[in-house]
Predict the structure.
Amino acid sequence: MRLSDFNYNLPPELIAQHPLPNRTASRLLVLENHVTDVVIKDQQFTDLINLLNPNDLLVFNDTKVIPARLFGKKESGGAVEVFLERITGETTAVAQIRASKSPKPGNKIILGSDEEPFEIEIIGRPDDSDNRFYEIKFSSPCLSLLEKHGQLPLPPYITHEANADDLERYQTVVAKNPGAVAAPTAGLHFDQATLDKIMAKGVNYTTLTLHVGAGTFTPVRTEDLSEHKMHSEWFSIPAETQELIKKTKLTGGKVIAVGTTSLRALESSAAFNIQEGETKLFITPGYEFKVIDQLITNFHLPCSTLLMLVSAFAGVEPIRKAYDHAIQQQYRFFSYGDAMLLTRQ
């Protein structure tokens, strides 16, 4: 398939700029794949509980978004913005750097406040870089510096600066492992009361970790999808989660990924027989899914790798119909938008 097969026209006013007052207030588009037809149902996210059965298993991504955006200056005084793509060690990371001139290895950047400045050093380019990222080294453990001096990064299609509301609502209620620079947004629809109701019905939920990188927003620039270089993300699947998946399959329950990141981690684990590590798995139509039965997800950008993933999962034509329907019915799109429940084709 070609990149142009995954394009669609979205009215800008349908891009959700702020979360709704309550996490569970979103709409839920349910896409049912039948042998002879596709059925689309407009429901509320709170209806999800009625669509789940005892012994089903929801798999969440428990990554936590870090304050990944920093502002400072070069040694020469020029303004610099540093946006972490991922943390690679206690004091090391890979980042995008915006400055009037591209920094060089050995250059230092001064960040933080006038009262508490700190330095990062430019190490060079990662081996797999496409010249957008730099390897950097912090003068002390980076997570503590980010917590004190960093700003929460919001996606590029959200036009306001992060505020107090975003600090809470751009994290899922299961977030506990810091390392992501973008939220696993399907999980944003759940609150603790909903999780309690799900458990009371006999539905299980568990977690894994995949640290979402800035690469998730990188546009595909090649018409031939086989030429696209997929970004890498780190994931880890606990033994308890692996056992719950096996138990769910044995008892006839459905394994339901809460978000494309959970799906990518589980399918990467099955494809490469690893429970922890880096994944560059690029899922496009024709991929044979090995773990996931259903997927809860938000609506994705035109021509994005995530739109290709959901098209592989539910079918290209069913997804086209669902997105056309969502636009007609004025669903809210992207990170703070509404949700979909998809069944594997």
Notes: The chain has a mean pLDDT of 95. The chain has two domains: 3-65+165-343, 69-149. The longest strand covers residues 79-87.
